[in-house]
Sequence to fold (273 residues):
Amino acid sequence: MRILQLSDTHLRGDNSLSFGVVDTRRCLNEAMAHLKSLTQQPDVIVVTGDLADSGDMHAYHILHDELVALGLPVYAVPGNHDRRDRMREVMPQWCPAKPDIAPYLCYTVEQDNLRMIMMDSMSPGSHSGHFPAQTGDWLERELAKRPQTPTLLFMHHPPFATGMGAMDEPFENVERLAGIAGRNPQLRLCFGHMHRPIVTMWQGRVAMTAPAVSMQIDLDLSPEGGDTFRMETPGYLLHHFDNGIWNSHICQIAVQATFAGPYPFAGSVNPTQ
Fold:
């Protein structure tokens, strides 16, 4: 099983530049050309948030049409720059959450020998991660259904500290999520939001963030770090499950990166709806 994780496309549908710098439509086009060229195609694509920049409705239509053209199953969770209502409207098959967890876009994708649990960690208007009681209760019920099955948990916001101060914001109810992770050794945790690959151990579980399809956060390990970006080589994660073994590969998208920057994250908003 090959699960390809894309993240942080920050796509705009109005032909303007994201954060005043990044041509995110070009970034998407380059990523799609790369994915189409792969000799070994993935079995499924997962998008871990910030699909659109500021919840841009037209951007959701563009992204939907581009990924559907690959002919693969696609699943997504929202990030802090997304709007749940527009994701449900444009791409309902990508986020098939049941009414009992509304408004959160949480759901499970079942396979014979593995599971993918998709968790909604956003709160409208907020940049940081959230884990309210409702989603915590849902997650515990889902994990209890097949507790021995290898499981990838996908969310936008990582709950662990990264050392880049501006991005290490408080995470709502992180203690409860930590307890759940610690009690479930079948989990591997996969996130977006950080715009660069990071791998760590958290609560005894492998946890990682995906590089962005768009811009990459400048690696600045200071209290003020994490608030600028560079046009480094974009990428994605490829999670491979075979004979009971997980390997997660950090992959690059073949473009002529300029490494220009650093640029500030400015001119975009976290939608309030």
Q: What stands out?
A: The chain has five helices and 14 strands. The first strand starts at residue 2 and ends at 6. The chain has a mean pLDDT of 96. The domain at 2-264 is CATH 3.60.21.10 (Purple Acid Phosphatase; chain A, domain 2).
